[in-house]
Design brief:
This protein is mostly helical. Helix content is about 80%, strand content about 0%. It contains 4 helices and no strands. Helix 1 runs antiparallel to helix 4 (about 95-120), helix 2 packs parallel to helix 4 (about 95-120) and helix 3 (about 75-90) packs antiparallel against helix 4. The radius of gyration is 15 Å and the shape is elongated. The two termini are about 15 Å apart.
Length: about 120
């Protein structure tokens, strides 16, 4: 995969991780302050869709980067982050879900940042 395309995927993945964090933390604040948990954006399905989007973006971006720079740690960190995000789907709405999701998306974003740095250093 060309370096520019891979860097774009990394940036998209980092942006999606940021949106996920805003969604999770904003949702907690919204529910806490306004008791408005019935909004569609804060339904449980959005997490399944988010993970379904994160898996292929992370797979293509991180594997493509690892193939170019040869450091497979990005796949380990990103894969562990995706696993934590998946674990968040197994608990109900609440503190555990938020904590697991925040840890997972942070790990995935960190893997993409490492991927970008290592890809930049090998050019």
């Amino acid at each position: 995969m060309p370096l520019r395309a891979n860097l774009l995927l990394d940036r998209i993945a980092i942006g999606l991780s940021g949106l996920c964090l805003v969604h999770c933390l904003g949702g907690v604040l919204l529910v806490t302050m306004a008791s408005a948990s019935g909004l569609a954006l804060y339904g449980h399905d959005v997490h399944q869709w988010g993970l379904a989007l994160a898996i292929p973006v992370a797979a293509v971006g991180l594997v493509g980067g690892a193939l170019s720079h040869g450091r497979w740690q990005v796949i380990a960190v990103g894969g562990a982050g995706l696993a934590v995000m998946a674990a968040a789907l197994t608990v109900g709405h609440g503190t555990e879900e938020v904590i697991l999701t925040v840890i997972g998306v942070t790990m995935v974003a960190a893997a993409h940042v490492m991927n970008m740095r290592w890809a930049h250093n090998c050019t």
